[in-house]
TrEMBL record, chain A:
Residues 84-274 form the ABC transmembrane type-1 domain. PROSITE patterns: ABC_TM1 (PS50928). It is a multi-pass membrane protein. This is ABC transporter permease subunit. It is found in: Cell membrane. InterPro entries: MetI-like, MetI-like_sf. The chain crosses the membrane at residues 21-44, 88-108, 120-139, 151-171, 191-215, 268-288. Keywords: Cell membrane, Membrane, Transmembrane, Transmembrane helix, Transport. Belongs to the binding-protein-dependent transport system permease family. It comes from Paenibacillus glycinis. Coiled coil: none annotated.
Automatic annotation (TrEMBL), chain B:
The chain crosses the membrane at residues 21-39, 86-106, 127-155, 222-243, 277-299. It is found in: Cell membrane. It comes from Paenibacillus glycinis. PANTHER family: BLL4140 PROTEIN. Signal peptide: none annotated. This is ABC transporter permease subunit. Belongs to the binding-protein-dependent transport system permease family. It holds the Pfam family BPD_transp_1. It is a multi-pass membrane protein. Residues 81-296 form the ABC transmembrane type-1 domain. Its main location: membrane. Keywords: Cell membrane, Membrane, Transmembrane, Transmembrane helix, Transport.
Amino acid sequence: MEAATNLKLRRKKPGSGDKALETLLYIWAALMLLIVLYPLYFIVIASFSDPSAVAGGKVWLFPRGWTIDGYKELLKHSNIWIGYRNTILYTVVGTAIGLAVNVSAGYALSRRDLVGRKALSLFFIFTMFFNGGLIPTFLTIRDFHLYDTFLVMVLPFSVAVFDIIVARTFFRTSIPAELWEAAQIDGCGNLRFYVQIVLPLSKAVVSVLALWFAVGQWNAYFNALIYLQDKNLFPLQLILRDILVTNQMQTALGTGEAAQIALRLANLLRYSVIIVSTLPIICFYPFVQKYFNKGVMIGAVKE
Amino acid sequence: MLDTQSSGGAQRIFARIGRNWGLYVLLLPAVVLLLLFTYKPMYGVIIAFKDFSPAKGIMDSPWAGLKYFEKYFNSYQFSVTIKNTLIISLYSFATFPIPIAFAILVNQMRAGRFKRVFQTVTYMPHFISTVVVVGLMLILLSPGNGLIGAVYRLFGAEAPNLMGSASLFSSVYVWSDVWQHMGWDSIIYIAALSSVDPSLYEAATVDGAGRWHKIRFIDIPMLIPTAVTLLILRVGGLLGVGFEKAYLMQNNLNISGSEVISTYVYKIGLISSQYSFSAAINLFNTLINFSLLLLVNWVSKKYTEHSLW
């Protein structure tokens, strides 16, 4: 009680230094928001502006020389839409496989009555720090005839040890051992217990891992670069790489009117393709953000 | 269920395994996938010590000893790739306090709508793909028609070609990373701060501590265990700069500052098909990283009682 009144007394005379600090804090925060948002906003307005106005530095707050040619151009590039379709397929199938593999492994490792638990954990964790490297892995994929197939994008690299650890930590802290003991007495086996009791109780961790996996799949380009050759299998990110990075150099060359028009369209295409490819993630993200945070916290709990 | 460490006999252990056979079924897919696609390639690293040819296979290719390691150590690219990799990773290592500072500042904000929006917005760039981020950089940082060019012209100056400069490559690489990930990387610290017992702050207030003192004597000590764990993990990756972003940012103009070990391994291995040579460079890199991780973890365990395992 005494402490409480004491607290109030102190609170009544906040130092003027604290006020100044508070102001500085919010100025800093506003600056941060600007730094993060402005580049993204700039691309949005640039995608609706005349590229010469963008190049001339006339586009700052609003589009100049309104045009939707970039988006029209986008519709003509069928490879973008093939890439889009492929990415959606890889994301859906890859996430399903990833969840099935990692959540199950996480559950098994969370059980303290699993014989060989320590050795198995080591078997998994070791791969986080040591691996065969690019070429031996590439040769392995080729030996299994997985090179340039749909499967290589969703199956071989679906084990995510970090996700297994997150799942394991979650199960340890939220599925009480008594539950299994009770189920066992009623004659319930491990598999049935896992599917009918553990999974329905674990929607939080399953959704976090699903989101992590889906975002990872959507954004990845490394495996596609290494293991795919057939353009019809390319995910969106590899197509984006061609448009945004590789062709950047080529279109800058060349003169004449035809080259000018091509350059104009290439620039517009670049802006609009960024918008179209990133929009799903950006729109989807604020709704699921709280799950991401939760996941990081589950993962951070150290045993 | 008791986890009996003591006694048992083989029979009892087998009985316990048998009773839980379902758990092994759950583990099976992950174990099989790792064996096939992670452990099998580990056996494949022996091609680093062989003159591997795909026609002969791993077994029948002749031994080459340390030839390919020597080839790398004696090559011109050895010092270039090691230097670039170290510069970039030490540089990015030096930015590790940024998310910590970020978390402390966010923790100082009053809970409410602004704070929530602020966190949502600053985490967002983390979800943009590397390809798009590098695409953004190429657009915005172009000295001719990019945003940065326009800003410089406003002041009557000429913009540097950030994406085409070898000496500026590490700065561009690291600061764009900070832009993309500082918010996201701070989450784990914000979580640690949110678990601080509020009575600690109240007691500090009673003792006359101001904002700064609370940060100095409560917040920072609370963050140290998390920071140490993350630092150890980063040291383990000291000689590794991620392939994805470095490769995308590379061009003919900046190549002398942007060729890192991972991109070199890719080019030697998959573009010029020198499998054994590439595997040797890769193995050398992995071994250094792995030893660094063990070393730092050991030192940390000895002096601070924080360790990974």
